Amino acid sequence: MRTLTVTLLLVAVATAAVVPQKKEEDPAKLQRQYDIFKLFIRVHQETLYKELAEISKTYQLDSANYKYPELVEQFTRRYEARGLLPRGEPFSIYLENQLDEVKLIVDLLYFAKDYDTFYKTAVYLRERINEAEFVYAVYVAVLLREDTRDFVLPPPYEVYPELFVTSDVIQKAYEARLSGLLTSEDKPYVIYANYTGYPEARTREGLVSYFTEDVGLNAFYAYLNYRYPFFLDATNYSIPNGQRRGEIFYYTRQQLLARFNLERLSFNLPEVQPLSYFLPVKTGYYPEIRLQNGVEVPVRPEGISLFESDITSVELLKKFENRLNEAVDLGLVIYENEGRKPLKEGEAINILGNLLESSEDSVFGRYYGSLYRTFLNVFGNIADPRNRYDVVPGVLEQVETSLRDPLYFQIVERILNIIRSYQNYLEPYSKDELTFPGVEVEALSADNLVTFFDQFDFSLGNAIDVPRLEEVFKVNVVARVPRLSHKPFQLHATVRSDVAAKALVRFFLGPRFDALGRELRLDAARQDFVELDRFYYDLVQGENVITRDSRDFYVTSGEAPSFRTLYRRVEKALQGKEPFVYDEFRGFPETLVLPRGSRDGLPLRLYVIVTPVTATPDASLSPRDSYAFRTTDGRALGFPFDRRIPCDYLFRGVSNSRFEDVVVY
Prior knowledge:
The chain has helices at 27-39, 50-58, 70-80, 96-110, 115-126, 131-144, 156-159, 167-178, 209-212, 215-227, 245-265, 311-330, 348-357, 365-368, 371-380, 407-425, 431-434, 522-525, 563-574, 648-652; strands at residues 2-6, 22-24, 189-192, 332-335, 339-342, 439-446, 451-459, 477-486, 490-497, 501-511, 530-539, 542-549, 556-557, 580-582, 588-589, 602-612, 657-664. Among the domains are: 40-151, Hemocyanin, N-terminal domain, CATH 1.20.1370; 206-425, Di-copper center containing domain from catechol oxidase (di-copper center containing domain from catechol oxidase, Orthogonal Bundle), CATH 1.10.1280.10. The protein is an alpha+beta fold. The strands form 6 sheets. It has a 4-stranded mixed beta sheet, covered by helices on one side.
């Protein structure tokens, strides 16, 4: 929820409007939505709902109710042998000894033959397996099952708030509860929270901790991982646009890195440098996070190098990276059952992305390994590389917290260089490939771009034990944190066309100068251009004035309502008082579209290109849950900045595109 505004430039602000997608009035579907919410209430406690407790006691897993009957036997055998991760223990999807277990649990939920079986299985598991593992599995199953994927899920930062705020905030929440503090639904107890780099930054990287630790950004990244679990293949699971998951893996990380580099410019920080095998990591990270079981997440000390870790893992990393670089240099990839095959232009990025992540769709996971996940494991466990002291996983090993550590972006910079090497082998786009004959962008502009810090409240209730159901919503304790935001703005492009035609319009925002104030050539800056928007447009003959509102950008979504608000809305809908609106809150945070400005203004470049839509959009590409493919004209993601730009003059001379200098305040 939004509260009073703290502005950077003393400006008044209107918050982003959320465009509803679907109103639901069917009582059966509303009841299902209501029941889904109940699963997430105080997940670290036994359920407080009598009907759920009864289901948990009486429900029996029946193999006939699952697509693969052997799943029931496998789970039962593990459960009875006490081979499952105990409740209260830290969970990480990146730990190999927990991966088989969580896949089994996801499969039980996903392959339930009907919704009733799915839900009763979830209730049954809630009381029997590790609570963090349960939450992860339910998020994945709900987002992937055809009969649940439209349901609204509570924001991750309100399911596990302790992963999104520093431990002193959680401690104050506990103390408030123990003191018997009285709150009500309309009068919360507010605890002011901040970031690890504020009010006083310990390092240069701490200056941008408001970005890396933003709750909306980390929720977006968590949803991205819930939708694309690397251990599930696109053939047997309804992963949205799963046939392009490797390309989505690459492009989402590349865009996150580009956006982070723009944020760094506002403090004159240089762009992220790739992680080195030989040089120590200069900046440490103290996450200040305490898990629900009371254990602190470990610190990553400064000056740590890879060779101070498990040397076997380091050798694995080097071997995997050498094999991937060899595939790029030779233009040949080894398939597990088909031998060497050439990297074809239209599919190479997808193949390489799957190899980097080592998803289940990797063409030869055993040979190419998992460069990305092994890096996260090695540095996530850097405090205890030989597992002598049973140290809990670091922030890099949790999908809800990975972005908090600046080292994550150095890891991404290194692995993406492999795909960039492939892109650099490709011929630059010719003028014919960039041109839309008969179309000219005559003007490009943006409204005043103004950023500020706004206060944002989210509930800490799920971290606080309550003895009875009646007290769940009586305990109303919220963290109030300042978050970067911006004044709503519009982009304007005037396009003249000789013919009426269907077009695809792309807007980008990128750097004009580097951290030292030197103007950048386009080839040096192209990897840091962030795609703001992409949409179809029907050009008419003559002049076309295209206006796009920042609240309508396809990449972004507005703020998710609080868990409390969602829960109450469903209750009212079930009572017939108002319809429940299903909406999409899983995109990149609309508040972070612009990097932090300054009083003097942060100089950037705005770019637009209008291209023809020459083919019918691929019907197999889902517009849901995958912003990378909501609109497409068959060109590569990131077009036209995905290839070398050897000559600025020729690139700027394309009539259906235009650059314009803009300033962010």
